[in-house]
TrEMBL record:
GO terms for molecular function: 2 iron, 2 sulfur cluster binding. This is Siderophore ferric iron reductase. InterPro entries: FCR-like, FhuF_C. Residues 217-237 form the Ferric siderophore reductase C-terminal domain.
Length: 243
C-alpha cells in the first residue's frame, strides 16, 4: 500500500471511531495551523500550560489534581488511538512520536504528520515500535510539563496503562469475534512494548456472554469533581467496582 493510500485509510478510520480524531498531512504544522500545536521537535511547555489554564477556567471547582490529570489525558489520547487504528485497521504504523496535535479550547483534537511515510511489519513488530514511539512522546510531554508543575512518572504510567487497556476494550467492542486469548495476548504485548507492568492485566476481565473485555481502571480521571458530573462506570472509585 502506498503512503498516500495508507494515510487516507487511517484518516477515514479515525473519523469513524470519533469525529474529534481528524488527521492530515501537513509539512509545516506549526506555521499553518490556526490553533496552538504540540509536537516533539520544539518546546511546547507554554502551549501545554495554556491548556491547563483553559481547563482551570472551564472547571474552577474541580481543583488542581483534575486539571493536571485532564491535561495529561488530553495530550495522550490521540497518539494511543492513532497507534491502535493504524495497526489493527490499516496494518501499518506512522511515526507516532513526531505527530503534531492541535489544542482547541480546553480540548485536544486534530493530529498531523509531516510526511506520508509509515512502517509495515507483523502485528507484534508494529506494537513493539508503537510502544517505543509512545514512550518517546510521553517522556517529552512529561519533560515539558515539568518546567511548570510537578508530574510524577508513576502517576503518568497508570494513566498510560489505562489508556492502552481502554483501547483494547474498544477493540473488543468493534470486533466481538476476536477470542479471549487473542485479546489478552494483545494486552500483554502492549504492556511489554510500553514498558508497563503486566500487573495491569489484572484490571481486565473477559465476559463470555458479551464476548467483550471489560476494564476497571487503576486511575480516576476525577471528572466527578466537575459540577454536574459523576463517576465513570470503569472508575476504581465506583461502588460497583470495589474489590
Amino acid at each position: 500500500m502506498s503512503g498516500q493510500s495508507f494515510f487516507e485509510h487511517l484518516f477515514e478510520h479515525s473519523k469513524q471511531v470519533t469525529p474529534y480524531l481528524i488527521g492530515s498531512i501537513n509539512h509545516q504544522p506549526n506555521e499553518s495551523s490556526e490553533h496552538p500545536i504540540v509536537r516533539i521537535d520544539y518546546s511546547s511547555a507554554a502551549q501545554i500550560q495554556s491548556l491547563y489554564e483553559q481547563l482551570k477556567l472551564l472547571h474552577p471547582e474541580a481543583g488542581a489534581p483534575y486539571w493536571l490529570t485532564r491535561t495529561w489525558t488530553l495530550l495522550c489520547w490521540q497518539p494511543i488511538y492513532v497507534a491502535f487504528i493504524a495497526i489493527y485497521a490499516c496494518r501499518g504504523l506512522p511515526n507516532i512520536s513526531t505527530m503534531a496535535q492541535s489544542i482547541q479550547s480546553g480540548f485536544v483534537s486534530g493530529y498531523q504528520f509531516k510526511s506520508a511515510t509509515y512502517q509495515q511489519g507483523s502485528e507484534q513488530e508494529l506494537i513493539t515500535k508503537a510502544g517505543h514511539e509512545l514512550n518517546l512522546l510521553f517522556d517529552y510531554f512529561r519533560s515539558e510539563m515539568s518546567q511548570w508543575t510537578r508530574i510524577r512518572p508513576g502517576f503518568t504510567r497508570h494513566l498510560f496503562a489505562d489508556g492502552i487497556l481502554g483501547c483494547l476494550v474498544k477493540l473488543s467492542q468493534y470486533a466481538p469475534e476476536l477470542p479471549e486469548h487473542y485479546l489478552l495476548e494483545q494486552a500483554r504485548l502492549w504492556l511489554r512494548a510500553c514498558d508497563l507492568s503486566e500487573k495491569f492485566m489484572d484490571r481486565l476481565t473477559y465476559d463470555d456472554s458479551s464476548k467483550q473485555l471489560t476494564l476497571i481502571r487503576t486511575s480516576c480521571c476525577l471528572v466527578y469533581k466537575c459540577q454536574g458530573r459523576k463517576l465513570c462506570d470503569d472508575c476504581p472509585r465506583h461502588p460497583n467496582n470495589k474489590r
